[in-house]
Structure formats: structure tokens, C-alpha cells
Specification:
The complex is a heterodimer. Chain A is mainly α. Chain A is built from 25 helices and no strands. In chain A, helix 4 crosses helix 11 and helix 22 runs antiparallel to helix 23. Chain B is an alpha/beta fold. Chain B folds into two domains: about 220 residues, P-loop containing nucleotide triphosphate hydrolases (Rossmann fold, 3-Layer(aba) Sandwich), CATH 3.40.50; about 60 residues, Alpha-Beta Plaits, CATH 3.30.70. Chain B is about 35% helix and about 30% strand. In chain B, strands 5-6-7-3-8-9 form a six-stranded mixed β-sheet, sandwiched between helices. Chain B has a four-stranded antiparallel β-sheet with strand order 11-12-10-13, with helices on one face. In chain B, strands 2-1-4 form a three-stranded antiparallel β-sheet, with helices on one face. Chain B starts with a strand and ends with a helix. The chains are: A mainly alpha, B alpha/beta. At the A-B interface, helix 14 and helix 19 of A face helix 2, strand 5 and helix 3 of B. Bound molecules: adenosine-5'-triphosphate (ATP) and magnesium ion (MG). Adenosine-5'-triphosphate binds next to strand 2 and helix 1 of chain B. Magnesium ion binds next to helix 1 of chain B.
């Protein structure tokens, strides 16, 4: 053991995350690689690259969403990875750093370890090193994937550097956020809000084109990632800027840490009400989940508005036969706009399934923290406890998808000047994604009901659905394997005709999974 | 007198760990029953079986006349539970948790309970407006204690409820339990604090390695344990080694130290008198010695002691 205990804690973190960390790294890395390979295959002709770039830059919505495209195949291929990919790695950094600092303090585990020879700063140092390692590996894998797809090596390394910039910057920001409040949830809200703000600054700055608001890009760590400019005259020095920022924020975190006690935040907790009218397991579940549901609802209605905003210009954007093929393979054979909506909703549905799994697995957190024991020592039956959480996950995910659809319909209707028609076509396209999301939630309930240690398997299942959805065609997976994903069975609205059979079947499967999972839960030991 | 908790031959295994190995527990209505045993002996496991959180692998168990596994929710209306390590919701205040647990228990919020709640908060010096994450271990425990004590549950199941309380609060807790007893309610109290058990419990059950090694009233248990005798004699003693009931015999010339089983105390005293007693001191067993002895002894021999009348 090193004198401060940092080494021990780092080993502990690596051990705890021996599954999680490789999954995060591989998922991010593989997504990057598949995107690179797919785009390279889409644009065999340099002329198409140029016209696609011109078309993309002509759409302010697209530029805001992803940033401007430079006229190179690499730039086109790295567009999504520079924007949403950077967001993903930033969120991974937020999640990991919080997990090994504030969450550990909140659960009292640091206190337990603190009795040993831990220095005050050891937990933070270990968590920063751990997060940096994961971010570094994912970035390296991303660079490798792009280089392996035949894109220029320098640009690929720069893309990896861009990820590193985003990941490290938010490692530093989260390190500070962790010191401010004693609640792990508030840390997530602060740091996650930071990611959202960074994305918004970058989006507004990019949408401003050459206007004065352009400077906003430089206020955003996600803007820096983009300003590394992979495949378009790489700016390596931006990496140094990010490094300096990370060093400064981390140093600030250490200073703040010295000024607070273990377990508390820099800002004291506010007092709350001494009484409550809450009196049912459902009311408790809602209280525990409401901020997550509200947050997701807001995010998804915005996402819907952005998607709907440029759905009608999708036809001009995707100006290559291969691109059309890809959208059609994901989104059906209707008009390209319809196919685009269907494809994007399919992707968003998997994201909402992530919410659903997290909401259902709130039960796991309640059980491992022994709070479930307290609740279930009252007249609350196991069935009503489980159904409260699961019901909220089911209704919540359906509501969030409805809001996604409503946001998209409103924006599309405003663009085309026909609100009624947009709602009639776009809203059902979002709602048709509810049954497969419910099936994934059902799988989570079944696994959790069988044994609490199996519950995390729900994330593996969801990751599997994502891989099938994103890479199924690319890897030419057999139809039978692709059929394992419930998302594959949904009618591709609005382009395709509505076929109720698979929808009803999926709802029935979800119902069976929930009921069987609930019954198993009633029969098992609570730990 | 009715039996509130009855467990016989209770068995529970976790993988290869045998947590309960034929445990017996009998709690009568209106008593404060102490539940003791070394770390890992199975106290919490027993309590979790009683609460229907775990299903026993074997043995009989009944709680308030019902089956704790299949009738858990119904039975829970009539009991209140305080875990040893209380985890609260980080963003709920202590007051909210107290109200919530009361309502989930199916308790009507009448004025009486409200008054008791306020009084208990005052006595335990607990601020109900703090968020769960801001409470210390002891204060988290107080939240669960107030919730349990404010209820009108006829049975309180407390698993090391005072492990985080300071001495002042420990005293408040003892008063509250005495009041609960005076109201005729039943308490199962698992504890490592001997003085607490000595002050509160009429009867107790001691377990080791998942088995009951001793059960009965404290007075009975004192009677069951050996008396230490230190005696100076006129003549060197004879035949003491072979005398029944004599243990730990040490002879230094005419000075003799020994400990005697309670049943044989009379006959051993006779033997000693025959050798002429010059000076004698005898120490009644302290509670600590009694427990240490029971905790340390191998499970089977302890079981024999437990089998005595
Ligand atoms: N969920 C579980 N999984 C595996 N083993 C368990 C589990 N719960 C308890 N055990 C084991 O069962 C045994 C009894 O544990 P229990 O918690 O009942 O002891 P205890 O008497 O309450 O101890 P303490 O005085 O330390 O609270 C221990 O060996 C423990 O390791
Ligand atoms: Mg215990």
C-alpha cells in the first residue's frame, strides 16, 4: 500500500469496474469504428463527399446538432463522433468520476476505508486516474477504428485527441462538482447540466456561422473537441488548452476538498419539510424517480424538436445512393423523410429504453442499500412495491416517447406549415416504439426478479439491442440473430403501413416478462 | 400468555455458509426478549426470516400467529422494525421518513400518534427537517426508532438499535422500551450491549453459530453458571479432582481455586468443610463471564448446557 492509499484505491476501482469499464470502452470504441466503416462505404466518390458537405452545412439545424462539415471524407465520417460521441465520452467521465467519489462518500464506504491509512486526497486522485484511464482507452480505440477504416492516420489520432479533450475536461468539471454538494444526484445534475450547457454553447456558436456568436464555441469543452479539427487541418495545440483546463479544475477540486469534511458538500444541505402526505409505495417511487422523469422528458422533447426540424430537409442532405440505402435499411421504404424519422426514432427508442432499465433497476439500488428492507418491513407487499417501480418505468418511458414524438411533430409541422398532418403521422411513429422499450424493461424485471445479481444483465441486453440496431446490417448478422432485438419487429412508421400484430405481440411479451419477473421476486430472498 | 414469536429448528443457508442451524426462539406476549450472540451468529438472519425478507430452508416459524413468509404484508401492520444499520433516502427528510413508514404500516394519522411523534422527536433530540444524507449514523437510527416507537405496533423487532447512540440517548431508549413494556407490547431486542440487556430484558436467548445455546430468564442463567471458589484449608484436600461438578481446579499447598457447577455446590462445600475451611471467598458469576463463556464454548457443549432444565 502506498503511503496515501491511492494505489490501493485505484486497484479497488479497477476491480469494481472490471466489467463496466471494458463495456464502456468497447461500446464507445466499437460505435466509433462502425460509424467510420459505414460512412467510408457510403461515399465511394469524392464528388459525393463535397456535395454532402455542402448540403449538410446548408442546414442550420444540422450544423447546430453536429457542427460544420469540412470537405473531406474523414470530416464527414467523424461528424457524429465529434459531436454526440464527444457528449457520450463526457457523460461517461461524469458517471465514472462521480461513482468513485461522491457516491462512495454518500454510501459511507469511504468512511469505512478512511479508518485505514488513507490520505484525504487519495479517493479523488484514484478516481481521476481511473476515469482518465477509461477515457484514454476509449479515445485510443476510436482513433484505431478510424485509422483501420482507411482514413488518414493523423486525422484519426486527432479525433481520438478530441475525445480525450472532452473526457478530460469533464473529469475536471465533475471533480469540482463533487466537492460542492453532498448528494450524488445533485452532482449528476450539475455535471450533466454542464455537458448540456457545453453542447448548447457549441451548437449556438456553430449555428452562428461567421457571426460574432461564433466565439461561444470556445467557451465549451465540447467546442474544443471539435476545434481539434480532425481531417481538416488538425490543431494539436487545442489538446494543450484542454490539458491546462483539466489541471486547473482538478487543482481547484483539491483545494475545495481541503475545505470540506468527508461526506459533506461545500454548500450545506437545505432543510426540508418535517411532514409528508406521501403514504403509498407508488408515491415513494414517484418521489424517487420524478426528477429523472422530468429531466428525460425535457431532453427528449428538445431532441424531438431538433429531429423534426430538419426531417423535411433530410432528402437533400443524404445525397448519395448509399446514404439513402442506409437510411432505408434502418427506416423503411417510404419517402426519405419518413425513413429518416423512423430511423432516428428507432435510435432514440433504445436511448429511452436506457431510461426504462434505469428506472426499473431503481429497485436494485433500493435493495442493496437496504432501504427496500425498511419499506418491505411495513404493510407494503412485495408485489405492490415492485409494481410501483415497474409501473413508473413503463408509463414514464411511454410518456417520454410520446413527448419525443410531440416535439418532432410540432417542429416538423411548423417547418412544413401543416401541424395536423405532422401530428397524425409523426406521433404514432414515436408511440410505436413503446412496445419494444417495454420488452427491454420486462427483461430487466425478469432478471431482477430472478436474482438481484443478475439485474445488471439488463444493460447487456440493451447493449445487444443497440449493437444489432446499429451494426446488424453492417456486420450482416443472420436474420435470426437480428430478430432477437425487439426493436427489429416494429412497423417502420410513418412510411410503412401499421401492422398491429407485432405491436400487440410485443406488448404481450412485455406483460408476461413483468408478471413472471414479479412472481419470481415474491419467491426469492431479499438481500 | 400467548406466544408472539415461535421458531423451532430454523435452518438457513447462503451458498455454503450455514447461517442458521436449527435455531429455536420463543417470545411471549408482553416481554422484552433479549437476543444475543457473537458476530455472524445469525441474529440478523433470524430477524430477516421473521420479517419475511428471507425464506427459511427448514424448521417451523410463526409470528403473531401467522406465517411470516406468506402473510408478510398483513402481519407487518402489527409490527415495527428497526434495522441495525439504517439506510435512509438521501433526499427525504427524517420527518418525511417517519410519516411515510407510519402510513405504509397502515397506521391512521390520529392526533395521539402525532403527539407521540412530537414527544419522541423532542426526547431523542432529533431534527426532522434534515435530509437523509445529512444524518449521522446515530441520527439515522433515531429516525427509524422514532418511527417504530411512535407506531402502535404490538411487536417491535429491533436489531442492534442502539449501536450508534450516545450514552444519553441510550438512556432515553431504555426509558422508551420500559414504557413500551408497560403498555403490554412485545419487544425482540438483538444487542451486543450486556448492560442494556440486563436492564431491559426479563428473558433472553443466546445463540452461537446459528443455534440456540441458552434461553431463559437472566436469574435462571445466573443459577446455571458456575461459582468461583477460592478457599484456604486446614488439611490438603483429597478427592476433589474426582468430585462431580468441580472444574478448573488449581491447588497451591493448602490454597485451592476451583469453580463449581450450581447443582453440585452443596456437595462440594461438604467436601471442603471436611478439610476444615480457614478462609473462603466465592464470587457469583458476572454477566460478562457468563456470556464470554457461552460465546466461546464449542457449540455442542454449549447446547448441553442449554438443554438443562
Ligand atoms: N445475504 C447473505 N449472503 C451470504 N451470507 C450471509 C448473508 N447474510 C448473512 N450471511 C452470513 O450468515 C451468517 C449470519 O449472519 P448475521 O448477519 O445473521 O449475523 P449477526 O448475528 O446478525 O451478526 P452481527 O452481530 O455481526 O450483526 C454470517 O456468517 C454471514 O456472513
Ligand atoms: Mg446483525
Amino acid at each position: 500500500m502506498s503511503p496515501s492509499g491511492t494505489g490501493t484505491l485505484l486497484r479497488l476501482a479497477l476491480r469494481r469496474d472490471r466489467v463496466l469499464a471494458p463495456v464502456v470502452v468497447l461500446l464507445l470504441g466499437l460505435t466509433a469504428w462502425s460509424t467510420a466503416a459505414a460512412t467510408v462505404a457510403l461515399y465511394p466518390d469524392p464528388a459525393q463527399v463535397t456535395s454532402a458537405a455542402v448540403a449538410a452545412n446548408a442546414s442550420p439545424a444540422l450544423v447546430a446538432l453536429y457542427g460544420p462539415v469540412h470537405a473531406s471524407l474523414g470530416s464527414l465520417a467523424s461528424l457524429k463522433m465529434l459531436s454526440t460521441g464527444a457528449v457520450a465520452i463526457a457523460l461517461a467521465a461524469v458517471f465514472l468520476l462521480r461513482r468513485h467519489t461522491r457516491t462512495e462518500e454518500e454510501t459511507g464506504r469511504v468512511e469505512l476505508l478512511g479508518a485505514g491509512a488513507l490520505s484525504r486526497h487519495a479517493p479523488l486522485t484514484a478516481a481521476v486516474l481511473h476515469t482518465t484511464l477509461v477515457v484514454l482507452l476509449a479515445s485510443a480505440l476510436c482513433a484505431l477504428g478510424y485509422a483501420a477504416s482507411g482514413l488518414p492516420v493523423a486525422g484519426s489520432v486527432a479525433l481520438g485527441l478530441a475525445w480525450l479533450v472532452a473526457g478530460l475536461a469533464f473529469t475536471g468539471i465533475t471533480a469540482v462538482a463533487v466537492q460542492l454538494t453532498s448528494s450524488a444526484r445533485t452532482v449528476a445534475a450539475i455535471a450533466g447540466g454542464g455537458v448540456a450547457a457545453a453542447y448548447l454553447l457549441r451548437a449556438v456558436g456553430d449555428a452562428a456561422g461567421d457571426g460574432p456568436a461564433r466565439v461561444l464555441v470556445w467557451l465549451s469543452p465540447l467546442g474544443w473537441a471539435q476545434q481539434v479539427r480532425p481531417y481538416a487541418g488538425e490543431r494539436w495545440w487545442v489538446g494543450l488548452l484542454a490539458l491546462a483546463f483539466t489541471a486547473a479544475t482538478t487543482a481547484l477540486a483539491y483545494v475545495l476538498r481541503s475545505r470540506r469534511d468527508l461526506g459533506s458538500g461545500l454548500f450545506a444541505d437545505r432543510a426540508g419539510p418535517a411532514h409528508t402526505t406521501m403514504g403509498s409505495p407508488l408515491a415513494l417511487a414517484w418521489r424517487l424517480q420524478r426528477s429523472a422523469i422530468v429531466g428525460w422528458s425535457l431532453a427528449l422533447v428538445l431532441m424531438g424538436a431538433v429531429l423534426g426540424g430538419f426531417a423535411s430537409s433530410a432528402a437533400t442532405l443524404l445525397d448519395s445512393p448509399q446514404a439513402r440505402d442506409m437510411i432505408r435499411s434502418l427506416g423503411g421504404t417510404g419517402s426519405l423523410t419518413d425513413a429518416f424519422i423512423s430511423a432516428e426514432f428507432g435510435i432514440m427508442a433504445a436511448v429511452v429504453a436506457g431510461f426504462g432499465v434505469a428506472a426499473a433497476l431503481r429497485m436494485l439500488g433500493e435493495e442493496t442499500s437496504t432501504r427496500a428492507e425498511l419499506t418491505l418491513s411495513t404493510a407494503t407487499s412485495r408485489w405492490s412495491w415492485l409494481m410501483s417501480h415497474v409501473g413508473l418505468a413503463l408509463v414514464g418511458s411511454a410518456g417520454i416517447l410520446a413527448l419525443l414524438g410531440a416535439g418532432a411533430a410540432a417542429a416538423d409541422g411548423a417547418t412544413r406549415g401543416d401541424l395536423g398532418d405532422s401530428f397524425a403521422r409523426v406521433l404514432p411513429a414515436a408511440l410505436v416504439q413503446v412496445p419494444p422499450v417495454w420488452v427491454v424493461i420486462g427483461v430487466a424485471v425478469l432478471l431482477y426478479g430472478t436474482a438481484s445479481r443478475l439485474a445488471v444483465g439488463a444493460w447487456v441486453v440493451l447493449a445487444g439491442c443497440l449493437v444489432i440496431g446499429q451494426l446488424g446490417e453492417l456486420l450482416a448478422l443472420p436474420t435470426a440473430v437480428q430478430g432477437l432485438s425487439p426493436f427489429r419487429h416494429v412497423p417502420m412508421l410513418p412510411g410503412a403501413a401499421f401492422d398491429p400484430t407485432p405491436v400487440v405481440a410485443l406488448v404481450a411479451v412485455a406483460g408476461i416478462l413483468v408478471v413472471v419477473g414479479g412472481s419470481l421476486f415474491r419467491r426469492r430472498d431479499l438481500h | 400468555m400467548t406466544t408472539v414469536i415461535h421458531a423451532a429448528g430454523l435452518r438457513k443457508e447462503f451458498g455454503r455458509t450455514r447461517a442458521l442451524d436449527g435455531l429455536d426462539l420463543e417470545v411471549q406476549q408482553g416481554e422484552v426478549h433479549g437476543f444475543l450472540g457473537p458476530n455472524g451468529s445469525g441474529k440478523s438472519t433470524t430477524i430477516r426470516v421473521l420479517l419475511g425478507l428471507l425464506r427459511a430452508d427448514g424448521g417451523d416459524v410463526s409470528l403473531l400467529g401467522g406465517d411470516p413468509w406468506s402473510q408478510a404484508a398483513t402481519l407487518h401492520r402489527r409490527l415495527a422494525y428497526v434495522p441495525g444499520d439504517v439506510a435512509l433516502w438521501p433526499n427525504l427528510t427524517g420527518g418525511e421518513v417517519i410519516d411515510l413508514l407510519g402510513r405504509l404500516r397502515g397506521q391512521a394519522d390520529d392526533r395521539h400518534a402525532g403527539g407521540r411523534r412530537a414527544e419522541l422527536l423532542e426526547r431523542f433530540d432529533l431534527d426532522p427537517t434534515k435530509k437523509g444524507r445529512a444524518y449521522s449514523k446515530g441520527n439515522r437510527q433515531k429516525v427509524a426508532l422514532v418511527a417504530a416507537l411512535a407506531s402502535d405496533a404490538e411487536l417491535l423487532i429491533l436489531d442492534e438499535p442502539t449501536s450508534g447512540l450516545d450514552p444519553l440517548m441510550e438512556e432515553v431508549f431504555r426509558e422508551c422500551i420500559r414504557e413500551v413494556r408497560d403498555e403490554g407490547r412485545t419487544v425482540l431486542l438483538s444487542s451486543h450491549i450486556l448492560s442494556e440487556v440486563e436492564h431491559l430484558c426479563e428473558r433472553l436467548t443466546i445463540i452461537r453459530a446459528g443455534r440456540t445455546v441458552q434461553t431463559g430468564s437472566l436469574t435462571d442463567m445466573r443459577h446455571l453458571s458456575r461459582t468461583a471458589v477460592d478457599v484456604e484449608l486446614d488439611r490438603s484436600p483429597v478427592a476433589l479432582e474426582s468430585a462431580p461438578g468441580v472444574h478448573d481446579l488449581r491447588t497451591e499447598g493448602r490454597r485451592v481455586h476451583l469453580s463449581v457447577d450450581p447443582d453440585e455446590l452443596g456437595s462440594v462445600m461438604n467436601l471442603l468443610t471436611q478439610c476444615g475451611i480457614r478462609r473462603i471467598t466465592s464470587a457469583p458469576p458476572s454477566l460478562e463471564e457468563l456470556f464470554m463463556d457461552l460465546y466461546r464454548r464449542p457449540a455442542d457443549t454449549a447446547r448441553e448446557v442449554g438443554a438443562r432444565p
